[in-house]
Structures are given as C-alpha cells and as structure tokens.
Amino acid sequence: MTDTVLRICPLCEATCGLTLTIADGRVTGARGDKDDVFSAGFICPKGASFAELDNDPDRLPGPLVRRDGRLVPASWAEAFAAVAAGLGAVLGEHGGGAVGVYLGNPNAHTVAGALYPPVLIRALGTRQVFSASTLDQMPKHVALGLMFGSPVAFTVPDLDRTDYLVIIGANPVVSNGSLATAPDFVGRLKALRRRGGRLVVIDPARTRTAELADRHLAVRPGTDAALLQAVVNVLFDERLADLGALADHVHGVDEMQRVAADFTPERVAGYCGVDAGEIRTLARELAAAPTAAVYGRIGTCTVEFGTLTSWLVDAVNVLTGNLDRPGGVMFPLGPTAPAPRPPRPGRGFTTGRWRSRVSGYPEVLSEFPATALAEEIDTPGDGQIKALITIAGNPVLSAPDGDRLDRALAGLGFMVSVDPYLNETTRHADVILPPPPPSRSPHFDFALNNLAVRNNVRYSPAPLPLSGRPDEAEILSRLILIVFGAGPDGDPALVDEQVIATTLAKETADPDSPVAGRPVKELVGMLPPGPGYERRLDMMLRLGPYGDAFGAKPDGLTLQRVKAAPHGIDLGPLRPRLPELLRTPSGRIELAPQPLLADVDRLRADLDRRDHGFVLIGRRHLRSNNSWMHNLPALVGGSNRCTLRIHPDDAAELGLTDTAVVKGPGGELSAPVERSDEMRRGVVSLPHGWGHDRDGTGQRVAADHPGVNVNQLNDGSRLDPLSGTAVLNGIPVDIAPAG
Ligand SMILES: Nc1nc2c(c(=O)[nH]1)N[C@H]1C(S)=C(S)[C@@H](COP(=O)(O)OP(=O)(O)OC[C@H]3O[C@@H](n4cnc5c(=O)[nH]c(N)nc54)[C@H](O)[C@@H]3O)O[C@H]1N2
Ligand SMILES: Nc1nc2c(c(=O)[nH]1)N[C@H]1C(S)=C(S)[C@@H](COP(=O)(O)OP(=O)(O)OC[C@H]3O[C@@H](n4cnc5c(=O)[nH]c(N)nc54)[C@H](O)[C@@H]3O)O[C@H]1N2
Ligand code: SF4
Ligand SMILES: [Mo]
After folding, report:
1. Which of 264, 272, 396, 551 could form a disulfide with 402 if both were Cys (CB 3.0 to 4.6 A apart)?
2. Average pLDDT of the chain?
3. Which of 725, 730, 579, 728 is nearest to 143 (CA)?
4. Does residue 207 have its Cβ closer than 6 Å to ligand 2?
5. Would you say the pTM of this structure is higher than 0.85?
6. Where are the beta strands (DSSP E) in 89-140?
C-alpha cells in the first residue's frame, strides 16, 4: 500500500516542504509539497533523493561500541552503559571541564540539535566547546553583536521586494541560500530581474549565481572588506549617504566616515583587483536604488577579514537607509523567538570573557575556534581535553589540518559520537550512538525560522515510527542524565521537564513577559501530553511573538494549531523591528564599534599585499553537502567531483595535464584538473568534505570516490582574530603538473 506524508526537508537551509511516498513502512520517493505555505512545491536534486538518503544501507542501524580496539554492534542498553562507564571515569578523575564538545552543522537542522546541546554543555560546565560556526558564520554573529547588541539579530535580504541585490561571496543557485532561508532562491532572483530589479554578484569565480547577474565583479579573494570600505568612502565623499528613518537610531556615523577616508576606490583597486570606476558605480547605484540589499555569505566570513567584511556589509545597508525597511535587509521574527519586549538599552556584546588554554584564543559566544580543537586534545597540562562528545560533526574533514586532529582523537581517553555514520571522525569514537533517519525524526526549524525571508511556522511530526530505537532527543537526554550522574537508565523526560520549569520560572518573573506573574504550575499543566520536545516546542510557541500566551491571547499559536495546519501557517512579510531589538548599551545601532575600528589597521596594512602565486578558494556542488552526502549513488559523480578548477590560460602556462599537485601551508595533494574560464586568473578552487580514503570508515560509496581533503592544504594557523573563524578562502598555494 502506498501512502503519502509531509516532511520539511532537513538537507539545507531552504527548508522546503516535501511530500514523501511511503510503501511497506519506508520512504520510496519525494516531491515538493505544492501546498506548503513557504516553499510552494519547490524541490532540488538533494531533496528529490530523500528516499535514497533515508534508506542508505550504510546508515548505522544501532550503536557501535569499541571492544578490544574494534567498533562492534551493541544493544542500546550496552551502549549507554559504556558511555556511563567511559565518560564517568573522565568526569570522576578530571571533572566536566576536561570534556570537549564539538557540534556540527546538522544540529541546525534537527529538533534535538536545537534543544539539547546547550543543556549538555551546561551540565558538563565545560569551556571546551567547539562547533562548525567557526568554520562558517561566526564573523556575522560578532558583527551583529557589536552593531546591534545581539549576535543573533540576523539581517536578511528582503528578496521578494528588493530593487537592487548585491550578493557577495555566496552562490545560492548552488547552496540554495544560507543565513537567508528562501526556498527556490533561483526563482526569487529571476523574479527580481523580471520586476526590473538588478543583481550584482561579487565573487572571484563566475558562479552560476553570477551568470544570472547584471554585473559580476571578480574580486581578488579576501579583499572584500577593502572594497566595501571604498563603497562607504564614496557614499560619504559624494554625499550619497542617507540614513533615512534610521537617522535617530545610529551612533558613530562620523567615526565611520573618518575610518573610510583613506579607502578611496583608486587606493584599493589594485588590491581588490576591481576597477575603481566599478566600485564608484556600485556605490552610486546602491544609493540611487529605491531599495537595495547587500547580502554576504561564506566568501565574506571564512576569510582573513571575516568580521570586518560582515560589519561593512551591514554598514553599507545602514548608510543607504536600507536596514530594517521593506526591500532592504530586515530582521525576521521566528515563531519561537522570545516575544518582543519594550525597547531598552542592553549589556551589549563582548568576546574574550575567557581564553583557550593553549593558544589563548578569546571565547566567542562561549566557543573556541574549531581549529584549536586538536591542540586542546594533544597538548598536555591542566585543563587538557580527555574526553570528547561529537554531535553531528565531521571535523576531521571539515576543519583545517584534519591529520593532526585525526591523531589527536586517537589519543583521547574517551570519545562518544552521536552520528548516523561511521566516518573519518566517528571512527575514533569508543561509542557511536546513531540517531534514526529523517523519516523517523520530527522536524522544526528553531534556528532557520529566524532567517526566513517570510515569517512562517511549520512542524513535521516524525513521519514513520521509531521501531524500537531511541530518537535523537532521547539519545541526547540520556547523555545529559549520565553527566548529571543519573546513570544510563534515568528517565529522559526529566531533562525536558527541568528545562520547562526553569524557563517558565524566568518568564513568569519577567514583568515584560506575556505570562508575567502567572503560576508556573498552571502553565505546565497546559502543555500537551507527549514527547518532551513537543512540550518544549509548545511552550516556546506560546511564549513567542505569535503565541497564545498560555490562553491570554486566544487566537495565538499553540503546537496544536500548528499541527492542524500541515502545510504550515504564513505569518506575513518581514516587518520593521527597530528599535525594539537593539540591545547595545546606547540603545542605538553602533555603526563604528571600537573592536572593529581597531581591526581596520590590520586591513590597512594589507593593502599593498599582492599575490605572487595562486590563491585557493572553496566551491560547493548542488548534489553535495559538506562531507556527508558522498555516499549516495544518485548524488555522486557527474559534475559533483573533487577537481581543481583553474582558468585554462593558467593551466596552459603551468603546463598542467590531467593531474595537478597543489601545495599549501599545511600539506600537499594531487587532484584532477578541470579547466574553466569561470575562474579568475590566479585563483583556483577545490570543494571541501572529500578525502574519504581513511581506514575503518563505513561509507562504501564515498570510499569508492574518495577525492582529496582540501583542508589538509591548510595548517589552521590563520584565523579571523575577532571571531576565531578559520580562513578557508584565500589560501596561498603552489601548483605544478603531477610527475
Ligand atoms: N575548505 C572548506 N572547509 C569547510 C567549508 C568550506 O567552505 N571550505 N565549509 C564549512 C562549513 S560552512 C561548515 S557548516 C562545516 C561543516 O562541518 P561539520 O558539521 O563538522 O561537517 P559535516 O560534513 O556537515 O558533518 C555533518 C555530520 O553530521 C552527521 N549527520 C547527518 N545527519 C545527522 C543527524 O540528523 N543527526 C546527527 N547527530 N548527525 C547527523 C553526518 O553523518 C556527519 O558526520 O564545514 C566547513 N568546512
Ligand atoms: N549543495 C550544497 N548546498 C549547501 C552546502 C553544500 O555543501 N552543498 N553547504 C551548506 C552550508 S553548511 C553552507 S554554510 C552554505 C553556504 O552557502 P554559500 O555561501 O552560498 O555557498 P558557497 O558555494 O560556499 O559560496 C561561497 C562563494 O564565495 C566565493 N568566494 C570565495 N572566496 C571569496 C572572497 O574572498 N570574496 C568573495 N566575494 N567571494 C568569495 C566562492 O567562489 C563561492 O562562490 O551552503 C549550504 N548549502
Ligand atoms: S533546496 Fe534544500 S531544503 Fe529544499 S529540497 Fe533541496 S536540500 Fe531540501
Ligand atoms: Mo555551513
């Protein structure tokens, strides 16, 4: 018998609604849900491969436990007992501070990943916390924190209403968008062009997104901060800066003008590899457009000046009056965000409240740089990491110098990984606890709803039953109970009930909360019976901006209402939200925060640098996702290959034939050569997440097409100092023919 069921796709940030076909208790196909209020039927090749991904025979059906040096299948009870023993030993001898935690990207795409890791980290009381954020968007958090007082006040381009969109260092036609949740990003770009709007793409490569643009500026890698400083320079110099409605809410305009004064287009043109006239035109067009939005992503973050670039993206949005207005960049308001409180100054945002043990890196959002994980494990001394918990991460491939991390992991006292696969990282674990596949997991976009180009709420209960295995919420809850000393058999519901009690105690005590002064017990009694994560979701929705405030606003959202609308509920276009979200001590936007001004000296000192050899950047492929989707026959091969892309004239000058040897600061590798005039001269690209040739992994298809690990070219010593984010784009490399 064939059936259909709805499920939001967890495979990228676009959050498309899918209609899954189910036969004999498994998923057999996927298509776009035409009635989804947000995605309206859009689907990409990855979503269309949902069934293969869900049924991948290499997904671990149950836990693995290390016995006599080998990972062998075990029962769930045995696995949790092994965690209690192994982790318990480290906790007993060294305390929670000796336990490291690494959180990978899919935590942004699971219910469990949103709800439990913070509780686990608090339970451990550890400062050894690492995540994919410092390989990705951390510069954006720091810039937002310094400018708006809140590191999660994401500025999202109002794609469907803007007249002029500048995309810097992003390739949404391939990535399907990031920090801008928008199903069918391509369709939205085409619609922009159709309504007479213009698209400018700034990228060293003429990407598929650049192909859609009116104008493409092939900037030199890593130099966008200077280019944007020059845009700011022109805005002031030609009296084009116009803050519009923001004028009363901005501090630091004069400092901004001063700091940009020496970054004239003529001064930066050689450094950026972009004509001064092009930069002037960009500034003039941005100022002249009825509305405009500047949007930056990976190419603005994982670079030498990541935080400066992220700041300048929004500085330009402010100076052209485009922040917080329709058609500009706006602040989404997700359904589980806290209900807005009255405007008031906040404490602002700081980093460096503590420092990493070995290199003294400042903490940022209570994390250390992912590149520091290996040294914190392999450097002896007080506070050394003795045990590691990884959840949904593969840092051996995703972070620089995986070989060192690989060796470090092998020396840990204990390691547990929550991951569906035996891969380059999890092969070092003493216990692997595999979550069930997405067809057996619920879905709610706690994080991505706050990045959506249109406010909406959608929930997918787990489409299929668990059949005897714990869901990821239970796995993580049991880890938390073990850390609390409740042993492997504690009641996982206790974790959720504890969070609910604490949250409601705080809310009811807050005079500005929608439930101020109400008895906690009464509110707890209103939550529906069911899994703890659903009770927490219901609580968050009811406390949120559209919530029913536990009955006080009878038309408001509850989980029950959301469940009754399986295709989702549209919550309308983005609306202006200033000044209520500002949490700077001044209560204003800080246009020129001191830590950023201080870092401009480093940029200034770089202006005379020129590349002598080649520069390496990254590249994503439509049918791939970081390191973990190379195991599906339907997705690997064809154009999804790990090749060195290089301009044909560069290849000819170097005398490259089939294979090139690439040498970087961290190592050397050989890769097939792919000639492409998409590349700027002197710039080459390799995709990341490949290098599936290590022993003892369990992804058979991936092992047949291993590719090479680009991150081995990188020694990890170069970081954006303000955010601790690894420089993954703009790596100097030498290239030679093989042999
Ligand atoms: N050179 C270079 N390096 C890069 C990048 C780059 O552009 N260039 N990009 C960086 C970026 S943006 C990111 S986000 C990082 C990603 O870095 P990581 O998050 O460390 O790596 P991923 O490859 O995304 O690994 C995800 C892991 O989660 C597992 N997984 C999948 N689904 C689930 C699930 O439902 N639950 C659990 N528990 N686990 C699951 C997978 O099996 C895999 O092991 O890589 C970074 N590395
Ligand atoms: N198909 C697919 N989709 C994905 C992923 C995937 O691996 N595959 N990964 C997901 C993840 S984790 C993330 S974070 C997002 C990322 O989403 P995006 O940021 O849109 O993805 P990228 O393709 O890495 O785009 C970065 C662009 O920056 C350019 N670039 C590199 N260096 C510079 C520079 O110095 N300056 C400028 N201006 N540009 C530069 C690159 O050429 C590239 O085109 O994608 C997500 N979606
Ligand atoms: S665009 Fe992203 S969310 Fe949509 S179907 Fe593809 S992978 Fe899934
Ligand atoms: Mo990412």
Report:
1. 396
2. 97
3. 725
4. yes
5. yes
6. 99-103, 129-131
pLDDT tens by residue, 518-550: 999 999 999 999 999 999 999 999 999 999 999
* 91-100 pLDDT, tens digit each: 999 999 999 9
Contact between residue 201 and residue 193 where contact means Cβ atoms under 8 Å apart: no
List of E strands, 282-399: 293-296, 329-330, 387-391
Euclidean distance between CA atoms 116 and 495, whole angstroms: 9
Q: Chain-centre distance of CA 263, in angstroms?
A: 31
- For residue 618 and ligand 1, the question of a CB distance below 6 A is answered with yes
Q: Walk me through the domains of the chain, giving residue ranges and CATH numbers.
A: 1-55 (3.30.200.210), 138-339+578-602 (3.40.228.10), 611-737 (2.40.40.20)
Say if residues 398 and 424 touch (Cβ distance below 8 Å): no
pLDDT at 407 over 80: yes
| Residue 533 contacts residue 325 (beta carbons within 8 Å) | no
Is the CB of 622 within 6 Å of ligand 2? yes
Position 2 scores a pLDDT of 74
Distance 9 CA to ligand 3 centre (A): 6
Residue 638 has pLDDT above 90, yes or no: no
How buried is 228 (Cβ within 10 angstroms: 0-12 exposed, 13-18 middle, 19+ buried)?
buried
**What pLDDT sits at residue 559?**
98
CA of 623 to the centre of ligand 2 (A): 14
> What CA–CA distance (Å, rounded) separates 660 from 665?
17
Q: Is the CB of 15 under 6 A from ligand 3?
A: yes
Q: State pLDDT tens for residues 176-198.
A: 999 999 999 999 999 999 999 99
Q: How far apart are CA 175 and CA 13, in angstroms?
A: 9
Classify residue 627 by its DSSP letter. Answer: T
Between the CA of 175 and the centroid of ligand 4 the distance, in Å, is 10
The finding on whether 620 has its CB within 6 A of some atom of ligand 2 is yes
Q: Give, using CA atoms, the residue closest to atom 26 of ligand 1.
A: 393
| Nearest alpha carbon, ligand 3 atom 2 | 12
Helix (H) or strand (E) holding 283: helix 276-288
Residue 439's pLDDT is: 98
Residue with tokens 């004069």: 254
Q: Is 40 helix (H, G, I), strand (E, B) or coil?
A: coil
Backbone torsions φ then ψ of 645, nearest 5 degrees:
-90, 130
What does the pLDDT read at residue 612?
A: 84
Find the 395 Cα to ligand 1 centroid distance in Å.
Answer: 7
| CB 139 within 8 Å of CB 301 | yes
What pLDDT, on a 0 to 100 scale, did the predictor assign at position 611? 78
pLDDT, position 1: 61
Of ligand 2's atoms, which has the minimum distance to the CA of residue 207? 44
Give the span between the Cα atoms of 423 and 60, in whole angstroms.
Answer: 11
Ligand 3 centre to CA of 184 (Å) is 9
CA dihedral angle for residue 396, residue 398, residue 399, residue 403, rounded to 10 degrees: 30
Q: Is the CB of 643 under 6 A from ligand 1?
A: no
pLDDT above 70 covers a percentage of the chain that reads 100
* 581 Cβ contact partners less than 8 Å away, ≥ 6 residues apart: 148, 150, 153, 331, 340
pLDDT at 37 (0 to 100)? 98
Residue of minimum CA distance from atom 2 in ligand 1? 688
Mean pLDDT of 342-371: 97
| Cβ–ligand 1 contact at 104 (below 6 Å) | yes
Q: Which helix (H) or strand (E) holds 157?
A: strand 156-157
Judge if the beta carbon of residue 16 lies within 6 A of ligand 3. Answer: yes
Token pair 């500002």: residue: 582
DSSP class of 434 = P
- Is any ligand 1 atom within 6 A of the Cβ of residue 547? no
401 and 378 Cβ atoms separated by less than 8 Å: no
